[in-house]
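Quick one - first record:
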Amino acid sequence: MSSMHIEEHEFSNDDVKLFYLSAGPKNGPLMIFVHGWPGIAETWKPQISAFAALGFRIVAPDMRGYGRSTVTRESHDYRLERLVADMLALLASLQKKEAVWVGHDWGALVVWSLAAHFPEVCTGIVNMCVPYHTLEYGLDALLATVDREIYPADKFPNGQWDYQAYYETDSAEANKVFEADIANTIKVLYRRGDPASYGKPALTSAIIHSGGWFGGKSSAPEMGDLSRSVLDESTFNTLSDHLKRMGFFGPTSYYLNHAANKEYSERSLNGGVLDIPTLFIEAKFDGVCETSMSTLSDSMRRYCRDLTQVSIEAGHWVALERPQETNAAIARWLMTTLPTSWPGYYDEINAGMY
């Protein structure tokens, strides 16, 4: 992956084997990076290298259903309550009591849920693209935030979330289409952000009307080389190999537990209010998780009492598309909000003079 020494590990949580990468000094402050759909631990490569070099202990798991972790064949195994349990088991296997948790996409939802139910294991949280108190409460909660100026109800009844409504009735067909040409599926999904798309309907808003993904075709379109992708060749090849082997059943199953996830979220501590220091990174040109014009992030601002927000001009894969800006935002927040969690921190008052 890079010149940084990165180790590979696995552990078991009941009947599930979970794989993870680690880097940085073992006694450094712990940061755990949680990927989303459809990713693997290696998609955090720019962050693993940067924060390990600063002296943090970095851990990045392949979530269940992905990479070298177990794929179970029951969709309910991918509900948030199980995913949170996996992260608690990971923390226990590391023999640590808390960490700074960093999530993106579905990884953000896992981190939000972890913080809402087990705040004691969170020194702080950083999440990207998906705000708090949204998808954890089901598809209906998302539909209430749709910007009807961009998505008139008569034309786009589900707004940009139409693809999730499609999964609820045609997940097997979606998986079949994704798996028909894994390489081009990845190239489509991992495209860079397009400023010209800002304020326009997302491609995900017409999946049902089009008869499925990619305009209802049987496979992803030919995308050519990786010039429009946020992935380098190494990570692209690794992700392709894993998805060819594992398929999309696990990844798509994350979307098939809305009722169970809502019930779990309604059991959040403190009425769902988070007092944990929180950084939210908005990807301005993310057409699906659009937070600059819609009301999608309103609930997050109500329920997070120690919230810092940053906007980066990038698409959905902000940490890959703009790694320097993303890393700088996280590092600045850590230094200013969680100074005692910075590697080598010492108490200036009691340190004395040299």
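second record:
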Amino acid sequence: MAFKALFLAHAPDADKTKHRSLIDTGVYQLFSVVVKTQEEAIEVCKDFIQNKKIDSILLCPGFTHTDVAEIFKTTGGSVAVSVSRGDGPSGRVSLKARKKEGFIKKNNF
């Protein structure tokens, strides 16, 4: 039996049915899905909890604290939820890059 983790990321042009992958080492399965919206993230989490029996959800830095809380609530506490966050300077670099590429509208922050 493998430890199963789901990595979720946001992209404005994502297609959750197309932009996904699986790395399977035998004892570790890492699923990744890129979603467009928080609603899609919730839907994907529910699907993977029910159908893939995942143990952990890993979220990209684009998820807000509110998004993380909503995802945790969706899990019913049965799945670990973690967020990839950097230090202050790294966060600013990431934010600048995401704005430049259109992930974030400039007036959102």
